[in-house]
Specification:
Blueprint lengths: L2 E8 L5 H9 L3 H9 L2 E9 L4 E8 L11 H10 L14 E3 L7
Antiparallel strand pairs: 1-3, 1-4, 2-3
């Protein structure tokens, strides 16, 4: 059974365009890793008022946030660190969100 999760992250001010450019050219090895780990239907939305990112993904296994021990994810985090709020290990500051309503 696939689970749906959501979380938010935050961009540094004025970095939306760069974020979109980098994701438009997402590394094939990162896409393969996500899919191999059961992550699908992964969408990220942007809130202009707060520079916040809102991510939703369906998963059958680990979430993307749990793949930080892999070399490709660690490289991606470092690549994105100059445009996002990050932790000391370069992982994005990520806040899980709770479901309050769902309609199929």
């Amino acid at each position: 059974m696939m689970e749906k999760i959501a979380f938010k992250m935050k961009l540094k001010p004025g970095k939306r365009a760069e974020y979109e450019i980098r994701h438009a050219a997402i590394w094939p090895e990162l896409v393969a890793l996500l899919k191999e780990n059961g992550i699908a239907d992964y969408t990220i939305f942007f809130d202009e008022e707060s520079d916040s990112l809102f991510a939703v993904q369906r998963l059958n296994g680990n979430s993307s946030q749990e793949l930080g021990q892999t070399e490709v994810v660690q490289r991606w985090w470092k690549y994105m660190a100059d445009i996002m709020e990050t932790n000391d290990d370069y992982s994005p500051v990520s806040v899980p969100l709770s479901t309050v309503f769902h309609l199929d």
